[in-house]
Amino acid sequence: MKAIIFDKFGDSSVLKTSDITLPDLNNDEVTVAIAFTSVNPVDAKIRAGHLVEMLSHKLPIVPGWDVAGKVTAVGSAVSSFKVGDEVYAYARKAEVHDGTYAEFINLSESAVALKPSTLKLSAAAAIPLVGLTAHQSLFNTADLKKGETVFITAGAGGVGSLAIQFAKVQGATVITTASSKNHDYLKTLGADHTIDYTKGNVVESVRKIAPQGVDVVFDASGGDSLDEAWLTIKKGGRLVSIVQPPDENKARELGVQATFVFVEPSGAELKEIAQLIDAKKVKTPTINIRSVKEAAKAQDENEQRKTQGKVVLAIDF
Question: Which InterPro entries does this one have (predicted)?
């Protein structure tokens, strides 16, 4: 099969098209003919070698962790899917080697879900990584409850925009940051309060809305934004970052629970997300479809934040 690969770490020039062999199918796996994948910031980080200490890698690597396509084969122990099913998945495996910038991939049945019936495959490919990241952060880790207040940084981003909507479905009050040009958009997603992080004091703005502090902080920015976010949370609250591990000493000092989340595959949660999308309780990102043959350029533009919406790559070698 054809795939985009890299056999050494570096900039986007290391990406190339190659013919590779699809591994044998295990009993608990399905083979997916990939129609679309999507470009995420982590793709470039892996290509550059920035995650070698965090995750096991095996060169050559096929990048990409989002997938939408059709099942073409099922293992003998698989009971949830059949050939022809249209599915989507977050395709990260224990070892970074097989990815989704390719024609096919074998995935554990437990990582796969039927795609939302109301979405085309192209739109479904934009959901798994960002959707699971938001879902697992808010519910599996922060245990966000109805009636609580959550402060979400970078609300206009791919993860933040879904986190806002998941929080509203849960019945939470949502405070979020974004530049002023995105405030109307965030209101359509359900944000109760929007703060322009480029103007004024973010901490003061949040504390005006929630004088006692918020119950949950969901940090999708890191850096200075995370430093500020600590000061918005009430004692006994929960902070989750998807960018960097929070300072354990600071958490103890402030009396809060602080956790770093690195998203895990979950077909069960993707099924829940699909139900929310099909019920029109969650809006999906705008997509920008490109050819997988433009993968290098697409990664560069994603790193430089020159793209509008989520970049989806059609597997059209």
Answer: ADH-like_N (IPR013154), ER (IPR020843), GroES-like_sf (IPR011032), NAD(P)-bd_dom_sf (IPR036291), YIM1/Zinc_Alcohol_DH_Fams (IPR050700)
CA angle 51, 271, 146 (to 5 degrees): 90
Rounded CA gap, 282 and 161, in Å?
Answer: 10
Q: Is the dihedral of CA 174, 40, 197, 227 positive or negative?
A: positive
pLDDT tens column, 161-191: 999 999 999 999 999 999 999 999 999 999 9
The SS3 of residue 6 is strand
Structure tokens at 65: 């962790």
**pLDDT range class, residue 309, cuts 50, 70, 90:** confident
For tokens 């533009």, the residue is 301
Determine the Cα–Cα distance for residues 193 and 203; give it in Å rounded to an integer: 13
Would you call the peptide bond into 60 cis, given omega within 30 degrees of 0 as the criterion?
yes
Q: How many whole angstroms separate alpha carbon 17 and alpha carbon 19?
A: 7
Q: Using CA atoms, how far apart are residues 105 and 114, in angstroms rounded to an integer?
A: 16
Strands 112-114 and 86-90: antiparallel
Q: What is the rounded distance in angstroms from the CA atom of residue 270 to the CA atom of residue 35?
A: 18
Q: How far apart are CA 108 and CA 270, in angstroms?
A: 14
Residue % of the chain over a pLDDT of 90: 95
Mean of all residue pLDDT scores within the chain: 96
Phi then psi for 183, rounded to 5 degrees? -65, -40
151 vs 145: CA distance, rounded Å? 13
Q: Angle, to 10 degrees, between the axis of helix 128-135 and the axis of helix 158-170? A: 50
Taking the alpha carbons at both ends of the chain, their separation in whole angstroms is 10
The rounded distance, in Å, linking the Cα atoms of 284 and 88 is 14
What's the DSSP call for residue 242?
S
- Cα separation, 43 vs 259, whole angstroms: 23
Going by pLDDT thresholds of 50, 70 and 90, the confidence category of residue 107 is: very high
User: Which domains occur in the chain, in start order?
Assistant: 2-127+284-314 (3.90.180.10), 130-260 (3.40.50.720)
Token couple for 301: 């533009």
